[in-house]
Design brief:
Blueprint (H helix, E strand, L loop, with lengths): L1 E7 L6 E8 L4 E10 L1 H7 L11 E5 L1 E12 L2 E11 L4 E5 L1 E4 L8 H12 E5 L2 E7 L2 E2 L10 E11 L7 E3 L2 E2 L5 E5 L4 E11 L8 E4 L1 E4 L6 E6 L5 E7 L2 E10 L2 E4 L6 E3 L5 E2 L2 E2 L3 E3 H6 L2
Parallel strand pairs: 3-13, 5-16, 10-12, 15-25
Antiparallel strand pairs: 1-19, 2-3, 2-4, 5-6, 5-8, 6-7, 6-20, 9-10, 9-17, 10-11, 12-16, 13-14, 15-16, 18-19, 20-21, 21-22, 23-26, 24-25
Length: 291
């Protein structure tokens, strides 16, 4: 059953190109140039190359963020993935929760990451939908008008680990030390935050679902919807930090195994050399099982 959880007028998206200065010790980025619309940004996302993956200077089309979000459930550890059809790249992948960083958050991309979690991750209990907190800050509740919130229980986000090398916006060190890479096929700088999802210990019959947005051509509205029959949010199991190759969905407290045949992962799981990822995507076996 598909449920529409929000309708809104599209916010006019603006961002900026990003100048990247990479060395063996640090990656520094600086927003440059005039504001770019979404279509202008997409036009710039053409393949590029660098000679040395450790040391280069390059202006890329945009800054993107992803969240490597892990969850402990019934004494087992999982990594959260969502499915995305990418017609612009001609593939269908499982990926981390992710989004484009708008111009006003380029210096604080962690805010974009938190918004993406609030908009994409839906956690249902017997008594309502969970709100989220990161440290002492409440996450937005974009679907509060459509979904009954659980008034007693919340989920929490905690930092899980930090990258070894710092990433700076101009002179400012980014909070939570995300992993950074320039994705050459899409000419973009990507930041990956590593967080732990902590569920309330008394929550029962949990279901995890993914809210997806699309533009309704007739009304011109941006529509967010979810589907109980196709939750599109997956749990990849990990043991002692290593992927087992097993994939599940969580519905009403039950883990349901999923077929991984032919699964493709986004480039966030591909091999990184220095500050660079060259592959457009990677196979399930290469991205999870062999790492």
């Amino acid at each position: 059953m598909t449920l529409i959880v929000a309708r809104k007028n599209p916010v006019i998206f603006k961002t900026q190109a990003i100048e990247v200065q990479a060395s063996s010790e640090v990656l520094r980025y600086t927003p440059v140039g005039n504001p770019l619309s979404f279509s202008q940004m997409q036009e710039r996302r053409q393949p590029v190359s660098v000679t040395d993956p450790e040391n280069f200077q390059l202006t890329v089309a945009n800054l993107g963020v992803s969240v490597d979000l892990q969850l402990q459930w019934q004494d087992r550890q999982f990594q959260l993935l969502v499915r995305q059809d990418r017609p612009d790249r001609g593939d269908n992948v499982l990926k981390l929760l992710s989004g484009y960083v708008p111009a006003h958050e380029l210096r604080v991309p962690l805010l974009t990451a938190m918004t993406e979690i609030a908009e994409e991750l839906l956690i249902e209990t017997e008594t309502g939908w969970l709100q989220g907190r990161y440290q002492e800050t409440w996450l937005p509740t974009p679907y509060a008008d459509s979904l009954t919130l659980d008034e007693e229980q919340v989920f929490r986000l905690a930092s899980r680990s930090s990258a070894n090398r710092p990433v700076l916006c101009r002179e400012l060190n980014l909070l939570e030390r995300p992993r950074a890479y320039v994705h050459l096929p899409s000419n973009s700088l990507q930041l990956v935050y590593q967080l732990q999802l902590e569920l309330p210990p008394d929550a029962q019959r949990l279901s995890l679902l993914h809210a997806d947005e699309f533009l309704d051509e007739e009304s011109g509205e941006l529509v967010a919807q979810m589907d109980y029959q196709r939750p599109e949010l997956f749990l990849a199991e990990r043991i002692k930090g290593k992927a087992t190759g097993d994939l599940f969905i969580l519905q009403q407290g039950e883990l349901i195994a999923q077929d991984t045949q032919g699964m493709t992962l986004s480039e966030a799981f591909a091999e990184q050399r220095g500050w660079v990822v060259e592959a457009p995507n990677c196979s399930w076996q290469q991205g999870l099982c062999e790492r």
